[in-house]
Amino acid sequence: MIFNSEISGQQEHTTSPVVTGGSVIALVYNGGVLVGTDTLCSYGSMATFKNVQKIAQISKNTIYVSSGEFSDFQQVVRELAKIDRSALQYDDGVHPSPKDYGNYLARLSYKKRCKINPLYLQNVIAGFDNDKYLALVDIYGTYLESKFITTGFASYFCKAIISNYWNENCSLDQAKQVIRECFKVLFCRDCRAHDVIQLAYVDAQGTHIEEPERVETKWDFNGFKYRANEKLHTQ
Amino acid sequence: MNYTEILSPKFEPETTGTTIMAVIYDGGLIIGADSRTSSGQFVADRCADKIDYVHDRIFCLRSGSAADTQTIAKYVRYYVDAHAQELGRLPAVATAANLFRNFLYEYKDSLSAAIIVAGWDPYKGPQIFTLPLGGSVIEQKWSIGGSGSTFIWGFCDANYKENMTLQEARAFVLHAVAHAMYRDGSSGGIIRLLNVTKDKIEREFIDYKDVPVK
């Protein structure tokens, strides 16, 4: 009872995040669904935790990632794990599908939104259950299935890159390259981004979470190196 | 005594404005903390012990409101004790971290508490879990916390190495905490160090005159 603030009577209303995770990008490709995040959790403006895995494997064929308050991300991972465990009690061999998780999360988010105590997250559920599944659940509980999803700053910078270089029938490698390009742009233009990213994909064989990798960004343009202010003001 | 004064918002709650640190080395971990408890501008306790006992090989470092963190630590100490009695062996550090996490997450709007849980267990060896304000849990090889930590991020990033020896780790923690105390008004006094290994706990008291940076 003490570990549930609703029951113990101290109803909380969280409206501002403390430790936050950055943008998430997810794309459908010809064999499954690919998601990418960076490995940074920020404490306000400080890049405090630099080696965090923000991709959670919820079941054999479902991945969950989110951007926003990190403690809420960890809480959702627990909540979704409960679903699989309670489904076991029916002992009928039926496991929740990726869509079941997406739907549950949407209902949970909406319930908390109605009590003005939201899970401060933009959630992405990716899975493969006979066919590819990708859905976004936002802070209010809005549920949207889509072929590509971006959260946070990526929504501003990366949609153009995705529109021009990706289509839903591309290969896994092509999709990975698109996500890497997107994170390069984010590292250049988003203060709360980090250049070490992590990719994960779900296909017919199951989920694969890769090791973190650093994206290459180019800084040695002539225009950057030789933009001396003294030239500006003396010529 | 005018009670309305104490209840008014001008009355500063007692906080552990502080510097706390834990570092894993090859064979165990070193914990360090300063000793100043402040009540606004007043030093309420100049020789506090911020390294709290949770279990025989599990300790927590508290920062934020002294009342909040002391109460939570008391509950977690009780829960871990009961759990260890039933278990019949040393509890996992992750268990203690999880119990702290439950408090910090569920009551995140009422609490001002950030905790570092550090200890040794027979299952995974030395571990450090950082629990910042919102109630997340992040495992790290070294962690700093409290108001004084802001002054030593650069120092720690530059001087931390993986797989240090006991001597190297002790010197790292001692100097880092000393540097933080040097610049942070809310940290000061003496430095307390604790070495946690499989076989023993070793406490060390660094007197003010022996603090390397003054």
UniProtKB/TrEMBL annotation, chain A:
Family: Belongs to the peptidase T1B family.
Functional note: Non-catalytic component of the proteasome.
Subunit structure: The 26S proteasome consists of a 20S proteasome core and two 19S regulatory subunits. The 20S proteasome core is composed of 28 subunits that are arranged in four stacked rings, resulting in a barrel-shaped structure. The two end rings are each formed by seven alpha subunits, and the two central rings are each formed by seven beta subunits. The catalytic chamber with the active sites is on the inside of the barrel.
InterPro entries registered for this protein in UniProt: Proteasome_beta4, Proteasome_bsu_CS, Proteasome_sua/b, Proteasome_suB-type
One of the record's GO cellular component terms: cytoplasm
Keywords for this protein: Cytoplasm, Nucleus, Proteasome
Record-given protein name: Proteasome subunit beta
Subcellular location: Cytoplasm; Nucleus
Pfam families: Proteasome
GO annotation, biological process: proteolysis involved in protein catabolic process
This protein's record includes keyword Cytoplasm: yes
Listed PROSITE patterns: PROTEASOME_BETA_1 (PS00854)
Coiled coil: none
From TrEMBL, chain B:
Job of this protein: Component of the proteasome, a multicatalytic proteinase complex which is characterized by its ability to cleave peptides with Arg, Phe, Tyr, Leu, and Glu adjacent to the leaving group at neutral or slightly basic pH. The proteasome has an ATP-dependent proteolytic activity.
A single MF term (Gene Ontology): peptidase activity
Compartments (UniProt record): Cytoplasm; Nucleus
Claim: Cytoplasm is one of the keywords in the record: yes
Listed transmembrane segments: none
GO cellular component, one term: cytoplasm
Residues annotated as signal peptide: none
Family: Belongs to the peptidase T1B family.
Gene Ontology annotations of biological process type: proteolysis involved in protein catabolic process
Pfam name, any one: Proteasome
Keywords: Cytoplasm, Hydrolase, Nucleus, Protease, Proteasome
Protein name per UniProt: Proteasome subunit beta
Quaternary structure annotation from Swiss-Prot or TrEMBL: Component of the proteasome complex.
CDD domains for the chain: proteasome_beta_type_6 (cd03762)
Alphabetized InterPro entries for the sequence: Proteasome_bsu_CS, Proteasome_sua/b, Proteasome_suB-type
